Amino acid sequence: MKTAIVTGGGGALGTAICLELASLGWRLAIFDRVEAFAQETIDALNGHPASTHILDVADRDATAKAVAEVFAANGAIDALVNAAGGAFALGVPPSDFIKSNPEHWNRFIDVNLYATFSLCHLVAPYMKQAKSGGIVSIASGAGMRGGPPKSRQAGAAVYSASKAAVIAFTQALAQELGPFGIRVNAVAPGRNESRDKPFAKMLEMLKQEEQAEAGSGRLSPLGRYGRPADIGKAVGFLLSDKADYITGCCLDLTGGIRLH
Ligand SMILES: NC(=O)c1ccc[n+]([C@@H]2O[C@H](COP(=O)([O-])OP(=O)(O)OC[C@H]3O[C@@H](n4cnc5c(N)ncnc54)[C@H](O)[C@@H]3O)[C@@H](O)[C@H]2O)c1
């Protein structure tokens, strides 16, 4: 059984990713800051092989220790999914850029960016030794085109910049690690559920946004909003052999709401 580390595995998207990977036969190592969230995913996995590691992914020492534990327990780290983050989890209050607090910028950089570098840096040596591996980082549609000006996304400008950096990092790392059989990709979800924004709340927010800016809360051309399972399926695909010629890509998972 192959082993995948999923950071933020207790989150809305992280849970869906874990469930999809479990259905594809992956053993899971869930890295999350909140024990209760990680436990909910363990419960949802219903006995499927999985471990939890409670830590802040921006804490290099704690993360290094947990990565070493996963390798020691399983003899391999075959995949990494960087899904920790989310505006609510970062504790950054919503704000226009001009009014934003510079101290809050660091939270986006620490979790969205530094932790992505750090996890990749820690797992890549194991993958290089095994001559195979897969990495998928959760970027965002906001990283492909910049968050909309009237977005209710907390700190949209800095968030967008951190996610754009994740995409460029993915492209560069894919070139560096490809010769060792390691594929590195990203996905860019659009509006989706999160822990602080379950489906009903997401619909309410979209209605408000539509009132403030016509067209901004519209449905995907596919006639629905995104679901966490959409992200899970895409990550499962990118880590599978079916994607064995795909590296350095950022898969748009916005449902075609904004094409570029
Ligand atoms: N949900 C969306 O609409 C959406 C859209 C685009 C991109 N994303 C991205 O997808 C990722 C997951 O978002 P989500 O919607 O599932 O969020 P969420 O709030 O539902 O879950 C985030 C999870 O990450 C964990 N986490 C946060 N900071 C952490 C840290 N420092 N160390 C360890 N664990 C930490 C939280 O405890 C939580 O379990 C994020 O990177 C987010 O930016 C989400």
Provide a short characterization of the protein structure:
With 260 residues, the protein is an alpha/beta fold. It contains nine helices and seven strands. Helices cover 47% and strands 15% of the residues.
What does this molecule look like?
A 7-stranded parallel β-sheet has the order 3-2-1-4-5-6-7, sandwiched between helices. α1 (12-23) crosses α9 (228-238), α3 (60-74) packs parallel to α5 (102-130) and α5 (102-130) runs parallel beside α7. The relative contact order is 0.15. It has 260 residues and is α/β, with parallel strands linked by helices. The protein has helices at residues 12-23, 35-45, 60-74, 87-90, 102-130, 141-145, 156-177, 199-212, 228-238; strands spanning 3-7, 27-32, 50-54, 79-82, 133-138, 182-189, 250-253. Nicotinamide-adenine-dinucleotide (NAD) is lined by residues 8, 10-14, 32-34, 37, 56-58, 83-86, 88-89, 111, 138, 140, 189, 191-195.
Which features characterize this protein?
alpha/beta; 7 strands; seven-stranded parallel sheet; 15% strand; 9 helices; Rossmann fold; globular; 260 residues; single chain; binds nicotinamide-adenine-dinucleotide
Give the secondary structure arrangement, pairings included.
Blueprint (H helix, E strand, L loop, with lengths): L2 E5 L4 H12 L3 E6 L2 H11 L4 E5 L5 H15 L4 E4 L4 H4 L11 H29 L2 E6 L2 H5 L10 H22 L4 E8 L9 H14 L15 H11 L11 E4 L7
Parallel strand pairs: 1-2, 1-4, 2-3, 4-5, 5-6, 6-7
Helix pairs in contact: 1-9, 3-5, 5-7
Bound molecules: nicotinamide-adenine-dinucleotide.
